[in-house]
Specification:
mainly alpha, 3-stranded mixed β-sheet, 3-stranded antiparallel β-sheet, 8% strand
Length: 521
């Protein structure tokens, strides 16, 4: 019933291997009904005819498996082999019995096309090619025998079919959802779309696809779809944001009817949340400590698009505290659900109040010892570092940390030095700084090439202390990074204090011998 192929190339190849080895791949579920339901126009790359009327069998469960088998075994001539981000022109290596895409070096006689396995004329033609191009008759015959066994494996394979008759749409999609709870068959929003997929009606997966394109333009294109689904459906429907029983939710007509309006209001809330985050310096999803912060903020702004000044200030403090304390990383689903309730109360009343679930007086986590772009605490540190408005290493003006992180990931925060003693300093955030798009290698070399006035101004915007130019010129690498580490710890504490985050206990920087000598590059 739903459209789109969501498997990846390895999934496709693995299914073919399971058939070859006779492994079970599960059953498929067919719903026989006279009810007209919108359906896909193709199975994989193969175009199919629309229903002609009367009783029609709709495939409810097994689309990815059926698409794989039909697309690889029945790939028509003249149809592009690469569709849905997979290559349907698959071959079996008769030497290794492995399924592969067309080799980059060209298809050899031992690569038997899967599309020819159940096509008599195609099978004969492929075998003749082996006989013609392989001079070793024994080898040619062995490959032909392998191809015959391969074809028999696919011809003889039996795929169990379960047919549902005289069922309503609601009961049919309930069965579908309960069969789709395990495995990596589709994303949650795609399942919801399948459950609600009727002719001319709202398609949630398509709407999220379109919204993702908008978010990409704002630096949030890598935001996990699960968080969007939680914000758009569960939060906006006042449901449990950790709920997974899509069947019980989506078969309800009143829920399906509300999806279009809920989507629009939740989308507006998320966009307002992004405006709010942008004003705080969060210009990329890679600067966002927790994806759930989008869910909570999106729900707040859905309910309260224009908060009072005091409420907005409280919400800002909530963001900074949850970011620097790692609040979302240490709570269970019940606590998070209660915290969402507090955010909703704040939005509905539009008056500043005390939070009970999120302790705004909790101390921040200590300065991170290692740089890990996935760490919420490191992302909070990057927000501080981005607030310094770091400048280009090539005198091209200010860098855009959010854009750099969106396009380059953690490569946007390059190493100052690749070799340091002690080794703890190599992985420290103090050994990382924002670098230009095209920068490659350690930043130390580039810094050394700048004049004293240039490098002095530049280093201040990257969180280096004033005495860094001397350490840089003297080649005192370890002392340079140690001095920056101590400066970053102190300056980030001031950043937190201004944002009303309670400071962590003072942490001493890594102890380095004071007798360090100059170590030229």
């Amino acid at each position: 019933m739903m459209d789109g192929f969501v498997w990846r190339q390895p999934d496709l190849l693995q299914l073919l291997d399971s058939v070859l080895q006779g492994f079970p791949i599960g059953s498929i579920l067919i719903w026989d009904t006279e009810q007209k339901v919108e359906s896909t126009e193709r199975v994989g790359p193969v175009t199919i005819s629309p229903p002609s009327g009367g009783v029609t069998g709709y495939l409810l469960d097994g689309q990815q498996r059926v698409s794989t088998l039909v697309g690889t075994l029945r790939l028509p001539d003249g149809v592009p082999s690469v569709m849905d981000d997979v290559d349907w022109a698959v071959y079996c290596d008769l030497d290794t019995r492995e399924f592969v895409r067309a080799p980059s070096g060209g298809v050899e006689p031992r690569h038997f096309p899967v599309r020819s396995l159940v096509n008599t004329a195609g099978f004969i033609a492929a075998c003749r090619r082996i006989q013609t191009e392989v001079t070793n008759a024994t080898l040619a015959q062995r490959w032909i025998d392998e191809a015959d066994q391969l074809a028999n494996a696919f011809r003889d394979y039996q795929l169990p079919v379960i047919r549902i008759r005289e069922a309503t749409l609601d009961s049919a999609v309930t069965v579908f959802a309960r069969l789709n709870r395990t495995g990596r068959k589709m994303t949650a929003d795609q399942m919801v779309s399948a459950l609600t997929y009727q002719e001319g009606q709202f398609n949630l997966a398509e709407k999220i696809d379109e919204f993702e394109e908008e978010l990409e333009g704002r630096g949030f294109g890598n935001l996990d779809r699960v968080f969007l689904l939680r914000a758009i459906i569960l939060a906006a429907l006042d449901r449990d944001i950790y709920g997974k029983d899509w069947a019980d939710l989506m078969v309800k007509p009143e829920v399906r009817e509300r999806l279009p309006s809920v989507f629009l209001s939740a989308k507006a809330g998320i966009k307002s949340a992004l405006d709010f985050l942008r004003d705080l310096g969060v210009t990329s999803d890679r600067l966002l400590p927790y994806g759930l912060q989008i869910v909570f903020l999106g729900e707040f702004f859905r309910l309260c698009p224009k908060p009072e000044k005091a409420v907005a200030a409280l919400l800002e403090r909530w963001f900074w505290v949850t970011s620097f304390t790692g609040w979302f990383g240490g709570v269970n689903s019940a606590q998070a659900t209660h915290a969402l309730g507090e955010i909703r109360d704040l939005a509905r009343n539009n008056k500043a109040k005390d939070f009970r679930v999120v302790d705004l007086n909790a101390p921040a986590q200590a300065f991170p010892e290692r740089f890990d772009g996935r760490s919420a605490r490191v992302r909070a540190f990057l927000l501080y570092l981005a607030s310094l408005r770091p400048r280009s290493l090539y005198n091209t003006g200010a860098l855009d940390p959010g854009r750099l992180l969106s396009s380059r990931g953690t490569k946007a925060v390059g190493y100052v030095l690749s070799n340091l003693e002690p080794s703890e300093l190599v992985s420290s955030p103090a050994n990382r700084m924002f670098v230009d798009d095209d920068h490659v290698g350690q930043a130390f070399s580039r810094l050394g090439a700048l004049s004293d006035p240039e490098v002095s101004e530049l280093l201040l915007t990257h969180g280096f202390p004033p005495d860094s130019v001397r350490l840089l010129r003297d080649g005192q690498r370890t002392a340079l990074i140690k001095a920056r580490l101590e400066h970053l710890i102190a300056d980030e504490r001031e950043f937190m204090r201004v944002r009303h985050v309670h400071l962590p206990p003072v942490k001493t920087a890594i102890n380095i011998a004071d007798s360090e000598t100059s170590d030229e590059e």
